[in-house]
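Thread: quick sanity check before group meeting

JM: Hey all, I'm pulling together slides for Thursday and realized we never actually wrote out the predicted structure for the chain we discussed last week. Dropping the sequence here so it's in one place. If anyone has concerns about the input, flag it before I start.
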Amino acid sequence: MGFLQLLVVAVLASEHRVAGAAEVFGNSSEGLIEFSVGKFRYFELNRPFPEEAILHDISSNVTFLIFQIHSQYQNTTVSFSPTLLSNSSETGTASGLVFILRPEQSTCTWYLGTSGIQPVQNMAILLSYSERDPVPGGCNLEFDLDIDPNIYLEYNFFETTIKFAPANLGYARGVDPPPCDAGTDQDSRWRLQYDVYQYFLPENDLTEEMLLKHLQRMVSVPQVKASALKVVTLTANDKTSVSFSSLPGQGVIYNVIVWDPFLNTSAAYVPAHTYACSFEAGEGSCASLGRVSSKVFFTLFALLGFFICFFGHRFWKTELFFIGFIIMGFFFYILITRLTPIKYDVNLILTAVAGSVGGMFLVAVWWRFGILSICMLCVGLVLGFLISSVTFFTPLGNLKIFHDDGVFWVTFSCIAILIPVVFMGCLRILNILTCGVIGSYSVVLAIDSYWSTSLSYITLNVLKRALNKDFHRAFTNVPFQTNDFIILAVWGMLAVSGITLQIQRERGRPFFPPHPYKLWKQERERRVTNILDPSYHIPPLRERLYGRLTQIKGLFQKEQPAGERTPLLL
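JM (edit): ok, ran it. Output follows.
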């Protein structure tokens, strides 16, 4: 029996060690919430007044603690005291506090609360650090807390910006913290470096459970390094602010790891998350991002693009309308958005009208003048625009040199112009390639209006840069997940099928149709000189129109009775 008891104790001890980062579920109905270091705690806050939280048995080699609490979109408050003061509390969807421990301190208390009417589901965790680890936010001069480990996040349609306070070097219990600005040598906080990480949630998933589950991968240093994408490394001389391209409806988590290269120690800030949209707003909320006007516009655009993908070269004038629509619509949308504050739906209607005018203008230019080089220059520039956008959609677009607008636009324009120059000797191939690639991409844009995909940001990032003067500083990373691979395969399949079909069908045919205006003049002269041609005896256009109007009038006149019209005499 003694051996059996020892075996049971050993099994229980091993289970306790494995559960070091286990999830603990509970609620705050007891009025006191107990925490353990390194364990995630799920609970619900539904009271307007603070609830006390406590941690027992703090190890003596722990110098400071970081407590953090997360919710999806409802604010919660964490405070050092029951009385909420601006310099001793933090409110938000991702809030944290740093507890600098005193000598011999083994217990820590703080307070949690929410001002919302609805109950708030939260996830919280305590992380411990030693005296060798840097203190996140230890040299805060911008925000309210004395030591602020939080990441502050702001977003608009174009960009999402995160800000954080500089860190300080670690120090032992009972010792004054190192001065923040006493010097810039290697013995000061200026040796610290900051690694900024980005983590994407699964696409098209706005559930609270998914967010809280993935937040567990972004709280501690090893998990962040293993799970997230490192975007940039900042030194102490850089501004503690980084911008990213906003992705409405896409959950993104950001965190910062401060690293001490002298001691090779690190500490994590409190991660922040965003969907770049509001869960509470009515119009334009996260649940209803796809506007009806966008769906109608891009669906019609995709139908025309699908036709161009397979039949564009044969129906040359229709393709020219499609190309002119794209060119005029793109530049008109940029112009009207930058110069006027009109609403998006009205802007989209005006863009469709302007694009139609541009398409008809390009068709008219071809019909009257028949200059193939001008038309093919427009066709090649549209294909070059997409290829250039794809180039900067890759990690190449995040290089520091391209954060300069001048360098970016010059390089972008050179790539776009290079395409028609390279294919100048084989214009039919250029035209068929443009039909297949551009026509199939219009289908991708239509899919995005119903089911979000990262492939739409190939061109949307360029449009954002043209519309917003601050977008040049933003990193344009996007998630590339299962649905993106599926849509990429659809895009490739459509493009290859359209190009192959048109190349096979156009073999042995003239490269391009003849000049329409010349054909019309030749036909008119032939009709005038050839009296044997039945069309020679066709009346002039004015007489034909007058005769047609007379026939139409006759349809609305009352038919007169035939025979005697004299009334009978009584």
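AS: nice. Residues 1-22 have pLDDT under 50 and may be disordered. The two ends are 138 Å apart (CA to CA).
JM: adding both to the slides.
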